[in-house]
Amino acid sequence: MDFETWEPVYERILEDMGYDRGADERARDVYAGTLRALGGNVFDGSLDFAGDRVAIAGAGPSLADELDVARRADAVVAASSAGRRLLASEVGVDCLVTDLDGAPETAVRLTTYETPVAIHAHGDNAIAIQEYVPRCRLSSVLPTTQAAPRSPVRNFGGFTDGDRAAFLADHFGASELVFPGWDLDDPTVGPTKRRKLRWAERLLHWLERRRDERFDLLEGRRDGIDPIGP
User: Fold this and answer.
1) Per the database record, which ranges form the 6-hydroxymethylpterin diphosphokinase MptE-like domain (predicted)?
2) How far is Cα 182 from Cα 172, in angstroms, rounded to an integer?
3) Phi, psi (5° rounding) for residue 55?
4) For the chain, give me the number of helices (H) and strands (E)?
5) Are 3 and 101 spatial neighbours (Cβ–Cβ below 8 Å)?
């Protein structure tokens, strides 16, 4: 995902959610500055999912009933607190994607085990970045942003932890994506989370078209999805 392709979609997200692009950029710069101050080399980006069936594990209520989907996959990329739940169920995690909003201690712990963790900066988590990133093993931190990338902070596409995990797996060559633990119609979430889930749905619809793949997660839903992206 190059930023020129991502940017028009990003601008639509900002407008719809009422977020400030400048705040995202400031968080990105705080992140880059924090990494420079720590003086360590971040993860080299050598994830290789070529030919793999990759489970993109969401943190929804259904995850408990769909653990076998993750177990049968060749690799697992977990979104936020799904990582903690998978590990508690003895399901391996090959990469965690998080903005440190859910289970940040899991992110720190996984980096000490040399598991790559894509830690994401956005407009309102710069303080969390400054608190938790210095506690991580930097060689396992893959820094990301939803704004324009600025080395070493990268942008693979995506907005929520879950759909960012899917875009990341796509970038690193996954041949098939499956989605345990996703509950796009979760009635327990509030209005903001519900709106984020609608964006996750749109972004995954865009990703499946880019991949020429049909995600089981979207079966029966496509007619109601507002198409985005080229």
Assistant:
1) 49-185
2) 21
3) -85, 125
4) 8, 6
5) no
pLDDT tier for residue 105 given thresholds of 50, 70 and 90:
very high
pLDDT of amino acid 2: 93
CA–CA dist 6, 167 (Å, integer): 11
Predicted pLDDT of residue 142: 98
Query: Assign residue 119 a region: left if phi > 0, alpha if psi is -120 to 50, beta otherwise?
Result: beta
B/e letters for 104-126, b = 16+ CB within 10 Å, e = fewer, are bebbbbbbeeebbbbbbbbbebb
CB atoms within 10 A of CB 26: 15
Distance CA 14, CA 222 (A): 23
Question: Tokens in use for 149?
Answer: 């990338």
| Number of residues that make up the chain | 230
Which residues lie below 8 Å from residue 182, measured CB to CB, with a gap of 6+? Answer: 56, 58, 60, 62, 162, 217
Query: Are 93 and 107 in contact, with CB atoms under 8 Å apart?
Result: no
Mean pLDDT score of the chain, rounded to an integer? 96
Enumerate residues 6+ apart whose C-beta is below 8 A from 143.
Answer: 31, 32, 35, 42, 118, 119, 121, 152, 153, 154
What SS3 class is residue 206? helix
DSSP for 111-135, please give it.
Answer: HHTT--EEEEE-TT-HHHHHHHGGG
Tokens for 155, please give them. 């942008």
Q: Where are the beta strands (DSSP E) in the chain?
A: 53-57, 75-79, 95-98, 117-121, 141-145, 176-178
